[in-house]
Amino acid sequence: MVMESVPLRAERPRKRVWELTDQFLLEVVEILLNYIKKTYDGKSKVLDFHHPHQLLEGLEGFSLELRDQPEPLEQILVDCRDTLKYGVKTGHPRYFNQLSSGLDIVGLAGEWLSATANTNMFTYEIAPVFVVMEEILLKKMHEMVGWGEIEADGIFSPGGTISNLYSVLVARYKRFPEIKTKGMTALPHIALFVSEHVNAPGLALEITGYVYIAINTLRPPAGSCAVGGSQSSSCRSSLNLKFLLR
Question: What cofactors does the UniProt entry give for this protein (predicted)?
Fold first, then answer.
């Protein structure tokens, strides 16, 4: 379907503007539905792999170039198709990941709804329905872990890394509540013991900047003090001391 590329704020009759809007959004929905069908097709590829330089150079009309002028709606539709075409089908039956996989259709519908509403979760005045929904969900989660309404509170986070950051901040405040009024100067040197394979907690430590980390004292980080592929015992000891006491 050929679409006329007209900005929504163009000086045209309102009816014509809405016709173009409907046409564009219906095209987008069709692209998404076709993608979902391919995602559930076990015979389709999980990924149509291309190297980064190929994506940057452009493939069959697909372009990642940021131009000074707005793109026409036709090009936006092409980019929508190709973005899905060259991406990983995370809902594919043969897609396996340690964090997530699969496609929840009801959740997808919720994403469409929340994106369309485009509501900021500031106050009840701005987001009455979503604020009440949040309270109900938190209450249910409190019940699931055995907490009552009085001693429980909560906040939603976008992922595991920031959840680890929240946990470090909560633990610090629990042990040193005076930091809220006196700042970080009220803190002694504190340590968090983690595995040598630490990932997200380590990032939380780097962001906070004041929590000291103690790693596995039997093994320094890979590549540290390496000379010819070997590490001396004195070097290993100095590294362990540095990471424990810095």
Answer: pyridoxal 5'-phosphate
